[in-house]
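#struct-queue
[09:14] JT: dropping the first one here, sequence first, then the structure tokens:
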Amino acid sequence: QVKLVESGGGLVQAGGSLRLSCAASGRTFSRYAMGWFRQDPGKEREFVATISRSGSITYYLEDVKGRFTISRDNAKDTVYLQMNDLKSEDTAVYYCAAGVRVAVTVTATQVDYWGQGTQVTVSS
């Protein structure tokens, strides 16, 4: 089992920045590709970004390319999502995921473990 604990969400104005963190425990972190998803009430959970085990391969939702950056520090068992130039449409609950398929597009079914989610609200 893998436990994922997220932090860093909050309320920001449009154009602002946040960095989300996800600390993993339970099993060897470096064995897992990681990712971030987001979800608004009444909508399906949406792929945002994924990163390979080594960190050498990343994929992003087209709408966040150039604004968001996923990274990982295997020595700290932590994955990050740096979010810049935030927009109102980025408002959602953001979920950390472990055991993610690393591909151009990913669905929420292609995930082994989930964090509890952290709210990101962007005011306009």
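[09:21] JT: and here's the second one, same format:
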Amino acid sequence: QVQLVESGGGLVQPGGSLRLSCAVSGFTLDDYAITWLRQAPGKEREGVSCISSSVGTTIYGDSVKGRFTISRDNAKNTVYLQMNSLKPEDTAVYYCATSGRICRDEYVYWGQGTQVTVSS
């Protein structure tokens, strides 16, 4: 039974930080790429970051590059998204998903999402 479960969202002030976690079960994380995506009300779904199974190669969307960092702990079957210097426009529901072995916009499994709100 494959599951991806996001956690770590919450309310934070502009300039603050959060760390999101994506706990994976039902498969070995070593073999799969994990993508973080987000969706804000009235906006299109946006790719945030992806980490591949191959040598941990990472990619970032332009809007988060330099502020967010994706990482993977295969022993814990968990992927993290460290978010620093948060802005109100980062407010969204954040999802993790797997696209198989490579980073691509085609997803096999999704988590339930975790809400991130950046506000004064």
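[09:30] RK: nice, looked through the second one.
[09:31] RK: The radius of gyration is 13 Å.
[09:31] JT: good to know. DSSP finds no helices and eleven strands in the chain.
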